[in-house]
Amino acid sequence: MSFDLGGILNIASGGTLVDGVGEALGLPKPVRDLAKIAFGAATGNPLALISGVAGLVEDLSSTAKTEWKPRQGGASDGYADEPAGGTAPFASAGAAPAASAATYYSRGQDPGEADFYRNAAVLRDHFRQLETEGFPIPDNVASPYDFILASNDPNASPELRDAAQYFLSNPDQRVRLGLGYRRPSDGIAPFTIGMLDRAVEEGQQRGYGTVHGSGPAAQPGNAGGSPPCIPPHPAHHAHHAHGAPPPGAPSNPSGTPPAHSGTTTPPGAPPPSTPPAGASSSGGSQISDILNDPNLSPEEKIEAIMESRVSSADDDLLDTAKQLDQARVDGSKIDASSDAGKEQAAKSQNNIDALTRRLQSIVQRRTEMMGMLTNISQTFHESAMRCISNIR
Amino acid sequence: MGRIIKFQGNAMQIHQEVSKKLKAFAQGKMTWAEVEGMTFEEAKAIAQVGCDLAAAGRIEEARIIFEGLVEGNPKDSASRAALGTVYQRLGRFDDAVAEYTAAVEHDGDNPVALANRGEIRLRRGDRGGLEDLFKAVRADPQGETAAGRRARSLVKAIELAAAKQAKAQVGS
């Protein structure tokens, strides 16, 4: 042990001093008192020591926080090896074990129920793609608008398209899944992978589906690993993943490559039951798709339209950010030693300034639209609550 | 966890492999966690429950969880340190120090055990507590644990106070 306490061993008093320093550092009183004791112990100063012990009215029991910090190497010493090819049953607390979309019902079971659970499992397996259909940055939340886009996305796998279409065509099942569910407290609940996990788990409990395929660690909702009181443990992250894609990677737990062939429907796959007319990625036809969709309520249509506007703002934002980055790279390559170079550098700077201003205005527009969307959701929610309270 | 000894009617069935494991456990060659087949990830999930209980103020229940984990694998320094914090919150300081010491024996760089033991030792007027605090700071340089961060604050306060006083002495 070699710590440098240089110069402090000849100090005569210190309780007040430690108090002052502790206050300046924002330390709570029990910790300041401990510091006094430590100061007294380090300096051999009995006054500070006594002052600290006397001041430590609040017991040390209140300062201790229960934490579980495994060792960097050999933390699993004394534990059994992980079973080969499978994730530990408790590997992700609260998450359901995964089920593939295959083998969902047997004789005597309801095919309608089997369809619900099978499609929920498909959505769960392809959640990353589903949630990034509209808003391209993964945020672990999907919306009705994402469902509409997924049902028409030629790059989506046929299973995902069919599953999205199934829930768009079956409002009852959509409600059952929790899509568009309005909480009494704070408006529409975000549609997350947890809702799909619950549906799949319920299906398993009722005997639909089989337990194999991807583990919960592969799911974006569970990506990240360590719970709050357990600090990250790099040595075990890799061990825990079991070959699952890293957090942030597109979810493809089945291991099969997604259908990016550009074909709309592969042989054998049923076409969407109610394809909206003129499905394409252009803004105008997207809005007409939403307006013409008979499966959406007026509220859902307005919300979906707003989300499509936000999504287009996101595209603009990303494009502009890319242009700005490119302009900066180009600007850094200009040799400003000559007159021509200086002129070029000035032009480049003007371009960067213009792009920056554009970026600011897009961010502002997006913020305004998000605010509007929030207000609309809030208004709908309040209206719904008024209706419910009138019924009561 | 009910994996080892299975009851079938009135007969208790123990497989041959399990029998071997039980012998190894009796000889101290295996932990009960290994006999049961408890993996590190399972232990981590159980520990998370214990941490949540402790954070919610359900200390007795947290104690049961961590005592179980320590019984299952006494080599697990993380569980021992966590049990120490639970004992500390229950006011059982001797037991807490014993657990921290056991944790440090298995993992000399456990910041939770070092920082909390350091605080208790200091409170008792033991100068060695300061050494524990310095070790805790070095064991957790990034401040990943609350204990490590607290130790860092303490050490910083002591160093600043000492520096100020030394300066004042030079001035006078």
Report on the architecture of this protein.
The complex is a heterodimer of chains A (392) and B (172). Chain A is mostly helical and 392 residues long. Chain A has helices at 15-24, 29-43, 46-55, 111-125, 127-131, 144-152, 158-169, 171-177, 193-205, 234-241, 283-292, 298-333, 339-391; strands spanning 182-183, 187-188. Chain A has a two-stranded antiparallel ribbon. In chain A, helix 1 (15-24) crosses helix 2 (29-43) and helix 11 runs antiparallel to helix 12 (298-333). The longest helix of chain A is centred in the C-terminal third of the chain and has 53 residues, at 339-391. The termini of chain A are far apart. In chain B, helix 4 (59-72) packs antiparallel against helix 5 (77-89), helix 6 (93-106) packs antiparallel against helix 7 and helix 8 (128-139) packs across helix 9. With 172 residues, chain B is mainly alpha-helical. The chains are: A mainly alpha (392), B mainly alpha (172).
Short description:
The complex is a heterodimer of chains A (about 400) and B (about 170). Chain A is built from 13 helices and 2 strands; from the N terminus they run H-H-H-H-H-H-H-H-E-E-H-H-H-H-H. By secondary structure, chain A is mostly helical.
Name the features.
heterodimer; A: 392 residues; mainly alpha; two-stranded antiparallel sheet; 52% helix; extended; B: 172 residues; 9 helices
Secondary structure elements and pairings:
The complex is a heterodimer of chains A (392) and B (172).
Chain A: H1 15-24, H2 29-43, H3 46-55, H4 111-125, H5 127-131, H6 144-152, H7 158-169, H8 171-177, E1 182-183, E2 187-188, H9 193-205, H10 234-241, H11 283-292, H12 298-333, H13 339-391
Antiparallel strand pairs in A: 1-2
Chain B: E1 6-8, E2 11-13, H1 16-26, H2 32-36, H3 40-55, H4 59-72, H5 77-89, H6 93-106, H7 111-123, H8 128-139, H9 146-171
Antiparallel strand pairs in B: 1-2
